[in-house]
Design goal:
Strand content: 35-45%
Largest sheet: 4 strands, antiparallel
Order of helices and strands: HEEEEEEE
Radius of gyration: 18 Å
Distance between the termini: 18 Å
Number of helices: 1
Helix content: under 10%
Structural class: mainly beta
Number of strands: 7
Length: 105
């Protein structure tokens, strides 16, 4: 992100550090036994630090749970900011960005 602060302090030879702005999960469940039950996700605390959380996706038989370790930041749940939580045609989509913190002097 080449904002004014990064333009002043960095260049293309030494770019600013990478920052995770959000996540996109697209999980396919083509063989669900009960098609009426929507898969869900749950946030769990990570045992090692407060910096991370575990997001666990649960769908039911014949699938086992999926778990990912992600950064623990506040989500921007505005649809215009890219939030999407949809299950249709056997595909669960969860897209979210983190709330942005703006640079101030």
């Amino acid at each position: 992100d080449w904002n004014k602060y990064n333009q002043t302090h960095y260049d293309f030879d030494s770019p600013p550090p990478k920052v995770i702005q959000g996540y996109k999960f697209t999980i396919f469940y083509p063989d669900l036994i009960d098609k009426n039950v929507t898969p869900r996700y749950v946030m769990e605390a990570s045992g090692d630090s407060q910096e991370f959380v575990i997001i666990r996706f649960t769908a039911g038989p014949p699938y086992e749970d999926l778990a990912f370790k992600i950064i623990n930041k506040e989500w921007d749940v505005n649809r215009k900011s890219g939030f999407r939580s949809v299950f249709e045609r056997g595909v669960l989509q969860l897209h979210f960005n983190f709330k942005r913190s703006f640079y101030r002097r």
